[in-house]
């Protein structure tokens, strides 16, 4: 026992679930499960995949509403538990997939996810945040971008967030899966510390070793039912194992193959390693089926993908005596993915097309396909697999799960493969079809084609396979042969494993040394610094050629042009930050000018002019509202929604004026073009806007929410960002800034011309991208967009000033964007996400 | 933290210096006063005065062959005056913001005279006005930017499209004395050029008389786009059993569409339009097979720019101003009378040259290579 039970009141369970049942469309996920978590205890929740552990904890954290049963917190029954209520009651959950925002720094992740009260009265925020992450064993700098962290470090960050709330109940869902030994030790120490402080911990795992190390009590679930509760020190491993295994037999199996001495070995896997698995070896004889066992996510799928030639590996794979490289495996292996719907089938194509697509070469007659040959061959294969479909031309999505899987198999067989790889071949398949699938795999194996099957169902592997490799954390922790292949042995190997994450890169905590310079280069302001450099050099060069470059006239006119583009680019930045885009800014600016041209004329009184400006503003707000609503509530993509508005606004402009008209009032123009020395007042306003927006982006919840949404919408939702509101307001902000641009544009073109403004859509996107804002969302700066706008206009000005031929205009811009794209992508190359 | 702050400071300092370069004044003079030397330039045209200047020629959109030839014509005209010591060209590439930036850049750079093709029309007026107010001789031409001579710019050298219309009307009256059914096609809907041309024709033919305009009024819009022209013509042929005359202000765009008549078993009717080598050659090839195919053209107006350059140079150098600010496109070809020219075709040269232009056909062809 590592955990000391302190003097806490253990009589009232801090969290008590009684008689919980939950079913999804008739299938029971939980049946009458009860769980009591006492203050100051670590309560392990043990079970295989699909045992119902995560569902139970989703009930406890309010994300899933149970069909039946009661939830009590500190003895008080809770009518209906929502995630928000759970958080208020002090229930914190650390998910298997961390809800962190890759484009934001560690500090920003903490601040956006945690209530401000966490930081109040704790001294300087940086230092307090550093102490928080250090306490969880995270050695990175708080200014590091989360994207640069390893998967393990992200988990530690997730745990930091949960612990910082000082929860009453902390739920950890398989927290050690991606962690190396050091981190596991640190995590355990941290958990014990929290427990010592009175926190109750629910620890979800499938590893008995961890249960022994950490937990006081253990609850075992199987098939959604409670199998037993015990004090850890009063139960043996064998007793636990008996509780874990023992699934109902759902299917029978075809007879196994008994290999003889005379059989050749037709598949050798010799010490292969790749992303997510290391040093796996096996050798099977003709007629034998190789099984890959383990709890989901321990490297089995990665191993299978490598064997199918889809991912690279080191080591040797020999099929029927020939060593095959990754690329030759890709052509010869038939791979049946676990995720049938997205990877395995083209759901809108027919059964025949899906089956035939990998074997089209066989039906070739000169340059064309022989329809007869295709129909005959495919038909006989489908018949031999007894695929039940209304016709060969039925859409594959209309078939049942089992028949869909058989279509995948038909394709595999039609391609005349050298090896067949099946990942979870019977997932979502009914019992009757399972036996047929097992038979087909047997037949394929008997015909001399090696078959490799991965399954999380140990019972299935027991029935089907002649050799089983058990994986844990990417290592092969056991190889079972013949009569040793039993569910018990398979599960035992998997749950008693103490192996730590195989992938070296995951195990090393510090991947890159974080220095201020590196953080700056990977930070958001590096592009701005680069742009400033380019602007200064280009400016200096032009000035050296012609001193009039810095004349009042030039400065004024250049900055006026920058102002119009700059405001619109700021608006575009908001849209790009949330991972969207606003194509309608150009036509909106043009449209607003046309609207303004009816009111802001020399012969109109000031009241009417003011009314016109107000109307423009209201129309801008409305446009943003429509854009945002179409995207969030109409489920349009950002491009589709804003393109709709693009066309509609242009149409409206032409409806209002079919030719230019309505000169803008001189008094208004004079006001907007007021200058301070050579600098337009409006440009100063633009700079002030930029600085304010930048501050809001970095220091205020508004900015964090924008970037959180763009960085990872799902994670943002989980940490409590209201996505709908954030997105709709973002598009409204974009439109309001386009309105500011329109005010400048009004004085620039001086007339209501329906054809004007459109080009701002493209130039604003160019300016923003030059400024380093990511088209993928989540990161960027307003300052960069301002400098991007300045540079674009400077280049326009430069071609005239340097008397360059017009070709240079295009070359200049093209090179700039190319250099920017290359530089930025190198500076922030996304590290490959592992496991 | 200290290091980090230093980086922020350094970045801020760089930013400020960038702003300084783009935004702060060095007080460089933007004056463009010219020095009067008083002596006329020997051997040069009268519009070429003695003061030395630099001149900028600006296009709103310079991407087609008509524009290239026009630009070359402008440069050619500039070259006649040795007082113009510097010549610059910029192409707005169809982008209003770039066109505005071009004008302002030229002014800032210190050119003394600007000749501008303001494609974007009235949207270019503020930029033209700012150039004029900065003391640069500003001469927009061809497209009307709105505004007034001597207030927003020095002078607008427009083409007189009413005269074109009158010339067309006279020819129609001569060749179809008993009336005719006329199909008039022009550019984008509502363009003033087409409206002026109709006014010109109506002044000769009389409204509501025996001359009937068929199709949309005031004209069938085609955007001067050959593909759209073909669509318009095809449907017009289907709808109207009789079309005596087609009037178009951009002749070459008709060439792709005219075979529609032959396809429907009708003769190509009389054509009243503007010139182009491709059109002349089309007439030459098809006139025998189409008995009704008579043709008259006015000059397409490449030389409009020459008048604008003359005006700008004269104003800036102190030369003699041309006596008009309106470019009249002369009648160019007449297949019936042969005056002033019979229909011309240079089959060995590109179709997109304009034989009415002052620049020689071979020079134009060389330019487009």
Biggest β-sheet description of chain B: 7 strands, mixed
User: What is the fourth-level CATH superfamily of the largest domain in chain A?
Assistant: ABC transporter involved in vitamin B12 uptake, BtuC
Instruction: Name the poorly predicted regions of chain B.
Output: 14-37
CATH superfamily of the largest domain in chain B: Response regulator
Tell me which protein chains meet in the greatest interface and how many residues each side has.
Answer: A-B, 67 and 54 residues
Q: Any low-confidence stretches of chain A, pLDDT <50, length ≥5? A: 1-10, 503-511, 830-835
For the terminal residues of chain A, how far apart are their CA atoms?
32 Å
Overall description:
Chain A has 835 residues and is α/β, with parallel strands linked by helices. Chain A has 32 helices and 26 strands. In chain A, the strands form seven sheets. In chain A, strands 6-7-8-3-9-10 form a six-stranded mixed sheet, sandwiched between helices. In chain A, strands 16-19-20-13-21-22 form a six-stranded mixed sheet, sandwiched between helices. In chain A, strands 2-1-4-5 form a four-stranded antiparallel sheet, with helices on one face. The longest helix of chain A is centred in the C-terminal third of the chain and has 27 residues, at 606-632. Residues 1-10, 503-511 and 830-835 of chain A have low confidence and may be disordered. Chain B has 369 residues and is α/β, with parallel strands linked by helices. In chain B, 38% of the residues lie in helices and 17% in strands. In chain B, strands 6, 7, 8, 9, 10, 11 and 13 form a seven-stranded mixed sheet that branches. In chain B, strands 2-1-3-4-5-12 form a six-stranded parallel sheet, with helices on both faces. The longest helix of chain B has 22 residues, at 2-23. Chain B is elongated and about 60 Å long. The relative contact order of chain B is 0.14. Mean pLDDT of chain B is 86; it is low at 14-37.
């Amino acid at each position: 026992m590592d955990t000391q039970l302190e003097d806490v009141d253990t009589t009232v369970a801090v969290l008590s679930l009684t008689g919980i049942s939950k079913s999804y469309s008739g299938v029971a996920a939980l049946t009458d499960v009860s769980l009591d978590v006492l203050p100051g205890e670590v309560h392990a929740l043990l079970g295989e995949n699909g045992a119902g552990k995560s569902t139970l904890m989703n009930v406890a954290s309010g994300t899933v509403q149970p069909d039946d049963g009661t939830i009590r917190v500190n003895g008080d029954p809770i009518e209906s538990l929502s995630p928000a209520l759970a958080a208020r009651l002090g229930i914190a959950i650390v998910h298997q997939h961390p809800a962190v925002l890759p484009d934001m720094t560690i500090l920003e992740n903490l601040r956006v996810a945690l209530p401000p009260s966490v930081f109040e009265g704790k001294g300087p925020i940086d230092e307090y945040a550093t102490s928080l992450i250090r306490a969880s064993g995270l050695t990175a700098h708080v200014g590091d971008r989360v994207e640069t962290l390893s998967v393990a470090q992200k988990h530690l960050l997730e745990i930091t967030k949960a612990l910082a709330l000082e929860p009453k109940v902390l739920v950890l869902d398989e927290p050690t899966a991606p962690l190396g030994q050091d981190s596991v030790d640190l995590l355990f120490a941290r958990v014990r510390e929290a427990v010592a402080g009175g926190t109750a911990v629910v620890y979800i795992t499938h590893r008995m070793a961890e249960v022994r190390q950490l937990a006081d009590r253990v609850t075992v679930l199987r098939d959604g039912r409670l199998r037993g509760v015990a004090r850890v020190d009063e139960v043996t491993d064998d007793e636990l194992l008996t509780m874990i295994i023992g699934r109902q037999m759902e299917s029978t199996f075809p007879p196994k193959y008994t290999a003889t001495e005379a059989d050749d070995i037709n598949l050798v896997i010799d010490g292969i390693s790749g992303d997510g698995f290391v040093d796996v070896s096996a050798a099977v004889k003709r007629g034998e089926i190789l099984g890959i066992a383990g709890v989901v996510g321990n490297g089995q799928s990665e191993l299978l993908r490598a064997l199918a030639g889809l991912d690279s590996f080191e080591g040797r794979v020999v099929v029927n005596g020939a060593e095959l490289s990754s690329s030759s495996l890709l052509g010869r292996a038939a791979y049946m993915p676990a995720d049938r719907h997205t990877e395995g089938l083209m759901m809108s194509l027919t059964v025949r097309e899906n089956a035939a697509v990998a074997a089209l070469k066989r039906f070739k007659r000169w340059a064309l396909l022989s329809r007869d040959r295709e129909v005959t061959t495919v038909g006989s294969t489908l018949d031999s697999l007894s695929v039940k479909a209304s016709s060969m031309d039925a859409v594959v999505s209309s078939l049942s799960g089992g028949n869909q899987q058989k279509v995948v198999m038909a394709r595999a067989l039609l391609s005349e493969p050298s090896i067949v790889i099946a990942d979870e071949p019977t997932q979502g398949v009914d019992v009757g079809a399972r036996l047929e699938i097992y038979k087909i795999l047997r037949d394929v194996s008997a015909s001399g084609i090696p078959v490799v099957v991965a399954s999380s169902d140990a019972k299935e592997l027991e029935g089907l396979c002649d050799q089983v490799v058990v994986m844990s954390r990417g290592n092969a922790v056991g190889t079972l042969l013949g009569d040793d292949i039993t569910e018990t042995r398979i599960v035992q190997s998997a749950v008693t494993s103490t192996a730590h994450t195989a992938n070296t890169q995951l195990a090393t905590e510090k991947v890159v040394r974080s220095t201020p310079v590196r953080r700056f280069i990977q930070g958001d302001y590096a592009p701005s610094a680069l742009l400033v450099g380019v602007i200064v050099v280009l400016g200096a060069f032009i000035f050296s050629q012609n001193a009039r470059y810095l004349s009042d006239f030039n400065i004024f006119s250049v900055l006026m042009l920058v102002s119009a583009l700059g405001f619109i680019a700021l608006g575009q930045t908001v849209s790009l930050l949330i991972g969207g885009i606003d194509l309608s800014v150009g036509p909106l600016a043009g449209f607003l000018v046309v609207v303004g041209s009816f009111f802001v004329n020399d012969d109109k009184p000031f009241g009417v002019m003011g009314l016109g400006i107000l109307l423009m503003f209201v129309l801008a707000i409305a446009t943003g509202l429509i854009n945002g609503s179409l995207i969030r509530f109409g489920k349009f993509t950002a491009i589709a929604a804003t393109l709709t508005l693009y066309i509609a606004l242009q149409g409206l402009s032409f409806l209002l004026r079919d030719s230019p008209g309505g000169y803008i009032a001189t008094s208004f123009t004079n006001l907007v073009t007021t200058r301070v020395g050579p600098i337009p007042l409006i440009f100063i306003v633009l700079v002030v806007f930029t600085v304010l927006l930048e501050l809001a982006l970095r220091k205020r919840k508004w900015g964090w929410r924008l970037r959180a949404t763009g960085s990872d919408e799902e994670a943002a939702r989980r940490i409590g960002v209201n996505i709908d509101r954030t997105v709709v307001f973002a598009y409204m902000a974009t439109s309001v800034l386009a309105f500011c641009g329109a005010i400048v544009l009004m004085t620039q073109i001086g007339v209501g011309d329906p054809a004007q403004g459109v080009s701002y859509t493209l130039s604003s996107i160019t300016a923003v991208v030059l400024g380093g804002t990511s088209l993928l969302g989540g990161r960027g700066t307003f300052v960069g967009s301002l400098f991007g706008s300045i540079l674009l206009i400077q280049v326009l000005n430069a071609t005239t000033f340097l008397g360059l031929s017009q070709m240079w205009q295009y070359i200049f811009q093209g090179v700039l964007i190319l250099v920017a794209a290359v530089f930025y992508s190198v500076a922030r190359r996304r590290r490959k996400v592992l496991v | 933290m200290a290091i980090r702050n230093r980086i922020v400071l350094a970045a801020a300092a760089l930013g400020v210096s960038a702003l300084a370069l783009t935004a702060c004044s060095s007080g460089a003079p933007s004056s463009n006063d010219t020095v009067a030397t008083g002596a006329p330039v020997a051997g040069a045209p009268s519009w070429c005065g003695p003061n030395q200047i630099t001149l900028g020629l600006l296009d709103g959109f310079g991407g087609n062959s008509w524009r290239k030839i026009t630009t070359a014509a402008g440069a050619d005209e500039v070259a006649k005056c040795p007082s113009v010591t510097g010549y610059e060209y910029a192409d707005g590439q169809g982008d209003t913001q770039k066109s505005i930036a071009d004008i302002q850049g030229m002014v800032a750079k210190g050119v003394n005279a600007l000749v501008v093709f303001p494609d974007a029309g009235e949207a270019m007026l503020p930029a033209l006005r700012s150039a004029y107010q900065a003391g640069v001789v500003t001469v927009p031409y061809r497209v009307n930017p709105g505004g007034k001579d001597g207030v927003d710019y020095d002078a607008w050298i427009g083409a007189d499209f009413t005269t074109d219309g009158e010339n067309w009307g006279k020819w129609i009256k001569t060749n179809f004395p008993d009336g005719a059914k006329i199909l008039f096609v022009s550019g984008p809907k509502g363009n003033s050029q087409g409206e002026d041309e109709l006014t010109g024709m109506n002044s000769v033919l009389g409204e509501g008389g025996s001359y009937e305009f068929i199709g949309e009024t005031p004209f069938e819009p085609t955007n001067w786009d050959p593909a759209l022209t073909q669509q318009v013509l095809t449907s017009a042929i289907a709808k109207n059993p009789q079309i005596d005359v087609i009037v178009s202000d951009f002749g070459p765009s008709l060439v792709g569409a005219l075979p529609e008549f032959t396809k429907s078993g009708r003769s190509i009717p009389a054509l009243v339009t503007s010139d182009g080598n491709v059109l002349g050659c089309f007439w030459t090839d098809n006139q025998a097979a189409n008995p009704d195919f008579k043709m008259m053209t006015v000059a397409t107006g490449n030389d409009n720019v020459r008048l604008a350059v003359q005006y700008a140079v004269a104003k800036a150098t102190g030369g003699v101003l041309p006596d008009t600010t309106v470019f009249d496109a002369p009648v160019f070809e007449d297949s019936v009378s042969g005056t002033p020219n019979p229909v011309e075709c240079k089959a060995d040269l590109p179709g997109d040259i304009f034989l009415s232009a002052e620049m020689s056909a071979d020079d134009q062809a060389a330019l487009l290579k």
